[in-house]
Amino acid sequence: MALKLAHDLMQGRYTTVLRRTLESMLLTLPVMLALSYYNGGSATQTVGVALLTTLSFVLYLLSRTGRESWVAPLLVLILPLYTIWDIVAYGSVRSTGTIGFTCAVVAAGVLLRRRYLVIVAGFCIVDDEVCRAASRM
């Protein structure tokens, strides 16, 4: 009984953290999209922010329909993919989007198991080095 209660409480907190993360993304990403559009950012970067906003909304809908088990892994997958998109669109690893690698590692550490944290961290490190090497060419 006590273990079931503890599990239910932890699941409730996990769901709350995940939803609040997605809600904060849904509040900030449209502002970033508008700023990118009105400040004359490249079309590729604006499309990337639009895709990230759309995917965040889809993840939020998944979380509201009770499919939390899909949301966290997809969020952790989307963040480094968006970061790669932004680095390619900007043309350099000096893009502000590189913070997405850090966000992916933090999200993996908070929302997923340790094994996936190590995998995501390794992927982000390797990918960052590949992007750095490509930008030097």
Q: What's the total number of strands? A: 0
Mean pLDDT rating:
86
Structural class: mainly alpha
Quaternary status: single chain
Query: How large is the share of residues in beta strands?
Result: under 5%
Number of discrete helical segments: 5
Instruction: Report how far apart the termini are.
Output: 61 Å
What does this structure look like?
- This protein is mostly helical and 137 residues long.
- The chain is built from five helices and no strands.
- Helix 1 packs antiparallel against helix 2 (43-64), helix 3 runs parallel beside helix 5 (114-136) and helix 4 (99-111) packs antiparallel against helix 5.
- The longest helix is centred in the N-terminal third of the chain and has 37 residues, at 2-38.
- The termini are far apart.
Structure at a glance:
The chain contains five helices and no strands.
Q: Which SSEs are present, and which pair or pack?
A:
Layout: H1 2-38, H2 43-64, H3 68-90, H4 99-111, H5 114-136
